[in-house]
Amino acid sequence: MPRQKTQSDDFVLRHALDLMYEQGPEALTFAALSKRCGLSGATLVQRFGNKAVLKQKSLLIAWDRLDADTARLAGSVPRTPEGAIELLVGLTGQYGTIDTYAEGLLILREDLRDPRLRARGAAWRDQLCAALDACFAQTGVPAGVGLLAATHWQGALLWWGFDPKQSVERYVEQSLRDFVARTLGTAAGPLHETVER
């Protein structure tokens, strides 16, 4: 009869993910994870085989979380341009501080290196853009504005990262409000007046 696992794979993978977010992807080793989750390195190797598999399975959990957060937020916001802003600002909360954002970029590098993780990213993009398109459906703007809004959001995150003088949520919200106003053809001041630097 097989021995019962003392810690589930999900428990172990969440610890692995936390380790990567706290110290970077290179910090994920079987020895470091062993100290964190309480299982021996040999047990971890037996379960996951190698570091690449461990990393991929951990990052798939991160995609699961992002998919769930996106679905939850998309289901809770109004189907309006204001709802699109609310959705993207809600997703922005995961970035927190500049240090958290910078570590997240290292994690993104790992996603871009792995075909399975890239596919998850592409599927999430489609999910997010469909939700954003639904928010603009009644405005008369051409189809596909969801991708433009998501692209603007990601760009705003990057520009905030170079000059993080205010909270990321505030910066992103102001930038998205300007984007929406310009997309809908309503009054908007110059971007440098809208977004504090």
UniProtKB/TrEMBL annotation:
Q: What is the lineage of its organism?
A: Bacteria, Pseudomonadati, Pseudomonadota, Alphaproteobacteria, Hyphomicrobiales
Question: Among its keywords, does the record have Iron?
Answer: no
Coiled coil residues, start to end: none
User: Residue limits of the HTH tetR-type domain?
Assistant: 13-54
Q: Which organism is it from?
A: Pelagibacterium halotolerans (strain DSM 22347 / JCM 15775 / CGMCC 1.7692 / B2)
User: Which keywords annotate this record?
Assistant: DNA-binding, Transcription, Transcription regulation
Please list the GO terms describing molecular function. DNA-binding transcription factor activity; transcription cis-regulatory region binding
Is Transcription among this UniProt entry's keywords? yes
Q: What is this protein called?
A: Transcriptional regulator, TetR family
Q: Show the stretches that span the lipid bilayer.
A: none
Q: One Pfam family from the UniProt entry?
A: TetR_N
